[in-house]
Structures are given as structure tokens and as C-alpha cells.
Write a structure and sequence with these properties.
The structure is a single chain. The chain is α+β, with helices and mostly antiparallel strands. The chain has one domain (15-178): YbaK/aminoacyl-tRNA synthetase-associated domain (YbaK protein, Alpha-Beta Complex). Helices cover 22% and strands 26% of the residues. The chain has a 5-stranded mixed sheet. The protein has a 4-stranded antiparallel sheet with strand order 1-2-8-7. A hairpin with a 5-residue loop joins strand 7 and strand 8 (160-164). The longest helix is centred in the middle third of the chain and has 9 residues, at 96-104. This is YbaK/EbsC family protein.
Length: 183
């Protein structure tokens, strides 16, 4: 067996994600359990009061450019609802009104309500991430996230974060990598 070096971030202790299911949302744990590169994914414990990006990056000495946010967007065309999770670097915002709207082929794209996003993803607010989302959702990842050495992103729960090599974000099932998704 080849030893895997886990990514390190700020002053957080990296732990093998699959060895700590208590630090993962159930759907995240299930998705990682069946994904071959999951041994390269780490999890870090954080104070749940610091789960929001700005507070977390400051408290744990994490560069904002290493942090990725996942927002859930919805739109409709001909009565068909289209949902997408958009992953962008934390120092950018998802281009919902242009690129996301055009990619989903909808007239208007808006953020999915927090209640729906958490209920349908089965993840806590502040922990939604592209691992373990509903199969019907599209997953759009900004190309700049793929270039992050170790992206820190939600883990499905507020009391931890995943550390995942950016290149692995592009290898998640169903991911579509887009240039300029974050602006």
C-alpha cells in the first residue's frame, strides 16, 4: 500500500476523512466511501460557530484563495426545474446571472432557498459541498478551484471541513469544470 500524504492547511490538524465519519455528513461519507481517490481527502475539525468562510479563514490562518464555497442555484425552462451546485474560490462569487444561467439554459437563475438546499442535499448550512449531492443536480466547478493545491470546503456538517486537492474536484462524478464560473 502506498502512503498518502494528507494536505495541510493553516493551523488545522488534517485527519484521513474516511477514518472520521463523525466529522462528515452522511451523504458525504457515503460518497467518499465509494470513490477511489478518497484516501487523498482529509478532514479538519473546526468550531461550528466559525463555519462561515470569513470567520474560518481568519481563525485558522487559512488563505482565502485556498477556500472554496459551494452555492446551490435553481432555474426553470418550460416548467422543468434545473438545480446546480456551483463551486468557486472564496475570493470570488459565482457568476449566477450570466454563466450559470446560460449553462443551465434557464431564463433566470436564483439561489435555492437555504431550507431546500439543506433538506435536499442532506447537508447542514455552511457544510454544503460537491461530494454526495443529489444525482439530479449538476455540479459546476470553477477551473480556478481545480488549481488549488488543497481546497478547504464544507464536509456536510458545520463542525468540520474537507481538504481536497483541487485536481480531485474535477474528478468527482458528474462534475463540469467551467472557466470564469467565479468572478
Amino acid at each position: 500500500m502506498v502512503a498518502v500524504t494528507l494536505p495541510r492547511m493553516g493551523n488545522l490538524e488534517s485527519l484521513p476523512a474516511l477514518d472520521h465519519p463523525d466529522l462528515l455528513g452522511p451523504t458525504v461519507h457515503a460518497a467518499l466511501s465509494s470513490w477511489a481517490p478518497a484516501d487523498r481527502v482529509a478532514v479538519v475539525r473546526i468550531d461550528p460557530e466559525l463555519a462561515d468562510t470569513a470567520a474560518m479563514t481568519e481563525a485558522y490562518d487559512v488563505p482565502l484563495e485556498s477556500s472554496a464555497n459551494c452555492v446551490v442555484v435553481v432555474g426553470a425552462r418550460s416548467g422543468e426545474e434545473r438545480v446546480a451546485a456551483c463551486v468557486v474560490r472564496a475570493d470570488t462569487r459565482a457568476d449566477v446571472n450570466n454563466l450559470v444561467r446560460k449553462t443551465l439554459d434557464v431564463r433566470k437563475a436564483t439561489f435555492l432557498s437555504m431550507d431546500r438546499a439543506t433538506a435536499e442535499s442532506q447537508m447542514e448550512y455552511g457544510g454544503i459541498n460537491p461530494v454526495g449531492l443529489p444525482a439530479a443536480w449538476r455540479v459546476l466547478v470553477d477551473a480556478r478551484c481545480v488549481a488549488i493545491e488543497a481546497a478547504i470546503i464544507g464536509s456536510g456538517v458545520r463542525h468540520s471541513k474537507l481538504l481536497i486537492p483541487g485536481e480531485l474536484l474535477a474528478e468527482l462524478p458528474g462534475v463540469e469544470v467551467l472557466d470564469d464560473l467565479g468572478r
